[in-house]
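Hi all, posting the design record for the shared folder.

TITLE: backbone redesign
STEP: 1 of 1
STRUCTURE INPUT:
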C-alpha cells in the first residue's frame, strides 16, 4: 500500500472521529445566552477558506480530466493538494464539535450540515486517488472524469454553504452595531450618561438582554 493511499485512510478516519462528536453530550448543548461564539465564528471562517481552496483545486482537476490533459504525475500532485484541504477541513470540523457547547443555535446547525457534506467529499476524494493509483498508465478513463465532476459539485456546495453561514454572521453583527450606534446617537450620548443610553437601547423593540454586552461595547465606542 503506497503512502498516498495510507494518508487517504487517515483522511477518512479524521472525519469519522469528528462525526463521533456529533453524538457526544456536547451535541445537546443549549444555545448560549451571550449569543454566537467568537471561537466558532473563527473556525467557520477557516473552514470557509479551506472549502474555497478545495473547490478551486478540484475545478482545475476537473478541467484536466475533461480535456484529458497532463500526466499522471501532475494529477497525483493536484490530488495530494485536494487531500490536504479535506484533511485540514476535517481537523477544523473536529475543533468545531469540541467548541459546540459554546455555539449558538445557528452555529450548531452549520456544524451539523457541514459534516455529512465533508464526509461525502472525503469519500469521493478517496475514490479519485484510488483510481489514479490503479490507472497510472491511463488515468483518463471515464470514471475519473465523473469523480472529478462530482468532486467539484460537492466542493462548490460546501463552499457556498459555509459562506452563507459566515456571511450571515457578518451581516447580523453589522446590523446590530448599526442599530445600537444609531439609537445611541438618537438618544444623544452627550445628553445622557452611558448607562442611560444602554437602558434606552434595551427598550428597543426586539432587543434582548443577551445583547447587553454588545450594547455596552458600542455605547463605549460612541461615547
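Okay, here is what came back for every position:
SEQUENCE:
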Amino acid at each position: 500500500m503506497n503512502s498516498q493511499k495510507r494518508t487517504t485512510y487517515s483522511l477518512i478516519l479524521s472525519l469519522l472521529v469528528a462525526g463521533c462528536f456529533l453524538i457526544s453530550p456536547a451535541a445537546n448543548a443549549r444555545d448560549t445566552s451571550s449569543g454566537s461564539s467568537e471561537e466558532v465564528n473563527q473556525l467557520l471562517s477557516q473552514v470557509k477558506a479551506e472549502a474555497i481552496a478545495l473547490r478551486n483545486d478540484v475545478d482545475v482537476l476537473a478541467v484536466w480530466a475533461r480535456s484529458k490533459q497532463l500526466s499522471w504525475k501532475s494529477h497525483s500532485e493536484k490530488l495530494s493538494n485536494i487531500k490536504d484541504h479535506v484533511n485540514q477541513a476535517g481537523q477544523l470540523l473536529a475543533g468545531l464539535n469540541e467548541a459546540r457547547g459554546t455555539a449558538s443555535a445557528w452555529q450548531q446547525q452549520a456544524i451539523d450540515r457541514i459534516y455529512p457534506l465533508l464526509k461525502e467529499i472525503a469519500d469521493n476524494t478517496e475514490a479519485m486517488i484510488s483510481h489514479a493509483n490503479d490507472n497510472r498508465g491511463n488515468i483518463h478513463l471515464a470514471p475519473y472524469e465523473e469523480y472529478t465532476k462530482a468532486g467539484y459539485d460537492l466542493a462548490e456546495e460546501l463552499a457556498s454553504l459555509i459562506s452563507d453561514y459566515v456571511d450571515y454572521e457578518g451581516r447580523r453583527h453589522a446590523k446590530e452595531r448599526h442599530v445600537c450606534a444609531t439609537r445611541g446617537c438618537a438618544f444623544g450620548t452627550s445628553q445622557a450618561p452611558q448607562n442611560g443610553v444602554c437602558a434606552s437601547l434595551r427598550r428597543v423593540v426586539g432587543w434582548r438582554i443577551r445583547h447587553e454586552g454588545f450594547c455596552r461595547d458600542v455605547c463605549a465606542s460612541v461615547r
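COMMENT: Residues 16-34, 183-223 have pLDDT under 50 and may be disordered.
Let me know if anyone wants the other runs.
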